[in-house]
Amino acid sequence: MTATPILQLRGIDKSFGAVQVLHDVSLDVHPGEVTALVGDNGAGKSTLVKCIGGIHAIDGGEYWFEGEQVEVHGPREAAALGVEIVYQDLALCDNLDIVQNMFLGREKRRGLVLDNTTMEELATRTLEGLSVRTVKSIRQQVSSLSGGQRQTVAIAKAVLWNSKVVVLDEPTAALGVAQTAQVLELVRRLADNGLAVVLISHNMNDVFAVSDRIAALYLGRMAAQVSTSDVTHSQVVELITSGRSGDLGLAHSNGVTA
User: Fold this and answer.
1) DSSP collapsed to 3 states, 82-141
2) Among 98, 122, 210, 229, which one is most buried in terms of CB atoms within 10 A?
3) pLDDT level of residue 2 (50, 70, 90 thresholds)
4) Is residue 229, in this structure, part of any structural domain at all?
């Protein structure tokens, strides 16, 4: 882990009308680590991620990236920093093949003609770099892929663009045991390759299998951010359900806890 987080959020507030969803939320995300973002339904996970990705403008607080304070006004600005988000619906087109999906909206061209050779080479290199071996052909239609393969393509699409922070929204939610193991291996590999990974998950087994750090949200506040090795399943569940853990001596902390 590097000493300086690549992504730092400080005192983030976000409201929708009269409803305040995020209250003074802080978060540190480090390169080479998987940070699991956990919390019950309605805790604010999706809103926080959309603030990171530029879909929602923050109402207050600071957004720091690579040691500099920045302002992110949209997904393109977040992507320009190196932030990519893989949402739960994956945003893949069933009627297109793997290469077409990976370059959708960012196609390589030679003049007015699509540069299929370059796109195929980059897609192959990206999948090989992630040690993906379950895809038979990069020209397979996405509709023919399994759930695990689809998730793999969505993740590969995210890391294709020199991304530095990859946010994964419930990547194993609809997968069986074998496909879950495959995706978790890929998540771990992303961090081992130096990327900062934020994993949103309700599955504590997945969280403890791959994460280095756990950030627990409770009713729109950051209850704690702790090293995974320092907590137990029951302590994390307590943070999620009550916003505190007596065993850890933590009680409604809005900051980042070691």
Assistant:
1) CEEEECCCCCCCCCCEHHHHHCCCCCCEECCEECHHHHHHHHHHHHHHCCCCCCCCCCCE
2) 98
3) low
4) yes
How many independent structural domains does the chain possess?
2
Nearest to 35 by CA among 241, 247, 222: 222
Residues 203 and 110 in one domain: no
Distance CA 121, CA 13 (A): 43
Residue with tokens 């990519």: 84
- pLDDT > 60? residue 81: yes
Phi-psi label, residue 111: left if phi above 0, alpha if psi -120 to 50, beta otherwise: left
**87 lies in some domain:** no
143 and 168 co-located in one domain: no
Does residue 45 share a domain with residue 106?
Answer: no
% of the chain residues with pLDDT over 70: 93
Highest-pLDDT range among 128-137, 193-202, 244-253: 193-202
Cα separation, 30 vs 7, in Å, equals: 7
For residues 251 and 228, membership in a common domain is answered with yes
* Spatial contact of 147 and 162, defined as CB atoms under 8 Å apart: no
Residue 192's alpha-carbon distances to 26, 70, 89, 130, in angstroms, are 24, 26, 25, 10
Q: How far is 11 from 254, CA to CA, in rounded Å?
A: 8
pLDDT at 254 over 50: no
